[in-house]
Structure formats: C-alpha cells, structure tokens
Amino acid sequence: MALATLIASCGFQNYQPKPIYPEKSLTKITSRDPNSEEFQRYLYDLNYPKNNIPIKKWGLRELTLCAFFFSPELDLARSKWNFAKSEIAISGQRPTPGMSTIVEHHSKAEGGISPWTFGLSLEIPVETSGKRSARMEQAYYLSEVERIQIAQEAWNIRHKLQLAWIEYNHSLQEASILQEEVQTRNEIVLVLQKRFNSGFSSSIELNNSLLDLQRTRQNFNQISLHTLELKDELASLAGLTPSTFNQLLLDIPGNEEDTTGVKEADDERLTNIINNDSQRYALQNRLDIHAALARYSAAEAKLKIEIAKQYPDITLIPSYIYDQEDNIWSLGLSGILTLIHKNKNLIEQAKILRDMEASEFELLQSNIIAELTQNKARYFASQSELNQEAHQIELLNTKVKQTENQYKQGIADQLDLFSSKLERLIAEENLRSIDYRKELAKAELENTMQRPFEDSENINRDIELSSKKNKED
Fold it and tell me: If you ran DSSP here, which 8-state letter would residue 450 be given?
C-alpha cells in the first residue's frame, strides 16, 4: 500500500501528441504581417522609438527587425539553446537510488516461528572526485556555444540583408542614370537624324548612335528587371511575401547634394576606426571567437570528467531482512575497479580534443586577420578610386556648364551640349559602380569586425535582445 501511494503521488506526465500540419505552416508563413499587434509589441520591447510605431518608412534597421521577428533560423537557434540549457539540469542530477525487496516462505518452521522472510535493500550511488560539477561545467559551456549561436545567426541575417539592401539601392541608382542616358542618347540621335536628312552628317555616325541607344535601352531594361528581383530577395530575407513587402514604403537613401563635408568627416572617422581598432574588435568581440573559447572550456571540462573517472564511484547498499522473527541489518559497498586501466585511453582522447579546440581557435584568429587585411585593402582601394573619380566628375560638371554657356552664346551646338552631358553621365555611372564596391567592402569589414559603423548602439542592442527573446514572450 505504501509503495502504491508513493507511485501515485509522483505526478507522472502523460504523452500529448503535437502533430505538424503543412497547410497550417504555409498559412502562417504567407500571413506574416509587419503591421500586426504582435510585431508592434516586439518593437516596444526592443525599445524602438515609440513615436515611429507603427513603422511608416522602412530602412535597413526596420527590415532587420522584421527579419528577426519572423526568422525561423532564430527560432531554431533559440530551441537549440533551450535544449542545451536542459542538459545543464540533466548533468546536475545525482544518481538515482535503487530499491529491491525479497519475500521468502520456508516450508519448514519449528516451534511456531514464522515461515516468512522479508527483505528490503537500498542502493545509494555516490559520485566521487567532482564528476558532477565537471559534468555541469561542460554542459554550461556547451549551452554558451548555443547561446552565442543565436546572436551569430542574428548577425548573419542582418549582414545578408545589408548586402541585399546595398545592391538594391545601387540598382535603383544605376537604373535612374541609365534612364537619363537613354534620354540623352535619344536626343543625340534626333540631332544626328536631322543632320543626316540635311546632308550634314554621315549614316555611319547616325547608325553608331542608334546602336549605342539600343544597347543602353537593353541595359536599362536588364537593370530594371534585376531591381525587381532584388526587391523580391529583400522581401524573402525580411521574412515577408513579395505582395506584403510591396506595400511597405522603403526609406531609400537619396542622392543629396552638398554633403561633401559630411562624407569626408565620415570617411575620416571610418579610417581611424579601421586603422586603430579593427583588429582589436575582430579578435576580441567577434561571436565566433567567443564560441570557440566556450568550446575550448567545454573540452577542458571534458578532460576533468575523464580524469575524475580514474577514481571509482561507490554504491552504498544498506539492507534489512526479517528472517523467521530474526532482524538482520547489513551495509554493503560496491564499485567498479577503474584502477586497473585508470581510464587512460579516454583521458588521452580528451587531451587530444582540447588540443584540437586550441588549434581551431588559433586557425580562426589567423583566418580573421587574413580576411581583415584583404577587406581593409579593398576598402581603401575603392576609397582612393572613388576620390579620383569624384574629382573627374567635378571637372566634367564644369565642362557641362561651360558648354551650356557656349550653347546659349551660339558658340556650341546641341550635339556638343548633349555629348558633354553624356560624358558626365558615363562618368557618373562609373562613380556609382565604385561607390557600390566601396559600400560592399565596408559591409564586409563590418562583418569581419562584427561591429556596425553606423548606429552601432541600436544594432547591437537589437541583436542582443532579439537573441534572448522568444516571440511568445
């Protein structure tokens, strides 16, 4: 009766099935709404400016927060962390005691002595040499690896969005310039057509201009199509369907004038960070560096466990036997004789694992330094090239103004004016391409350092809070 009562009071859990329905999952994906109350509460919790909720203009930060909220990768990373944390509790469990009973009936009983024998014994395992604490230490550091992986996944999401955002903005600028180039080349063709009709121009010059116009139109059509594809890619990275994404008002950086001083100050600030702080940030603050250190600590804990296993655990076995009205008490002791081989092979294996983690850490640092050196070279090369091209643009702007004045004075004709504008447009296309390469190099530098150059306080906080937070909270 006592045993039955004990079992009934244990509060066993019952199995509850939780099937997956593909149709429901698909509906959940296609119905994601960035204007939902859940997403707005998420923004409040992340300390997003309250006066901007709901979001009216969507820039890179807003799209990144949207991706964080709807990201299945972050959900999976959080689940892995929760699983790893459960391993800490499991590793801290003490060995479960055992119990055994015996009941015997003797066929011969003399003098009225009871023919029954009852026995009860307990098995109480006792771990020695700090195995439990070493096991908990290993589980803790392995859970740290998974915790860091959430932030790493969040950073990867932000970096992918950043690259797509840079490419999308560049594609829009390129399409705008090509559209203007099409108009300018069309004006040149009209002028040459009039000259050809009047006999003042050859058909070769006209045909070449027509071919250039056709090629420019093809380039414009290709860029326009590519821009739509990039917009769909942005929608996918933000976790939204294209139809939902098209309803958002994107905060596209404009081509503001008179920002030379601001850009020069910004370039100087970035140059100082890259030259003075980039290696320190890359080698100390990167998430994979912290994860590698956690893996090494887990390997150290693994070695502690195997060394502790040299010493045997013991099991205390107190027992009581009622044998035909005679009370018998006993205390047994059992253990595995590990002293024979002293766990040498597993200890050596754990040492190899620790050395391997140390080697991987050094390799990671070496790869980071090499990657940082390459990205710094790309950034400074593109910056130098951009400065040269910007100087060329200034000269061409001056030339266009001079040609306009000459045209007004009757010194230059329409063809001279349109040709000077076309020359400037081609140079501007080249400038935008160089600036695009510079922005990509800058983004890759950020990724290598894992430190945003702009709005770093908000971005780091967004990643930290999004890493810790479950959408259900």
Answer: T
DSSP letters, 319-341, are EEEEETTEEEEEEEEEE--TTTT
Q: What is the pLDDT of residues 88-135, one digit of tens each?
A: 999 888 888 888 888 888 877 676 678 888 889 988 888 888 889 999
Beta strands in 394-439 (DSSP E): none
Q: Hey, CA dihedral for 303, 304, 310, 315, is it positive or negative? A: negative
User: What residue segments make up the domains of the chain, in order of their start?
Assistant: 67-93+136-177+226-311+344-468
Nearest to 448 by CA among 322, 208, 274, 297: 274
Cis peptide preceding 54, ω within 30 of 0:
yes
Helix (H, G, I), strand (E, B) or coil at 124: strand
CATH superfamily of domain region 67-93+136-177+226-311+344-468: Outer membrane efflux proteins (OEP) (1.20.1600.10)
What tokens appear for 179 in the block? Answer: 């559209």
Give dist(CA 101, CA 121) in Å, integer: 6
How far apart are alpha carbons 38 and 51 in whole angstroms? 17
CA distance 63 to 58: 6
Residue with tokens 């250039």: 212
Report the SS3 class of residue 360: helix
Distance CA 163, CA 455 (A): 17
* C-alpha atoms less than 13 angstroms from C-alpha of 467 in its C-beta half-sphere: 23
Give dist(CA 162, CA 164) in Å, integer.
Answer: 5
CB 188 within 8 A of CB 426: no
pTM exceeds 0.70: yes
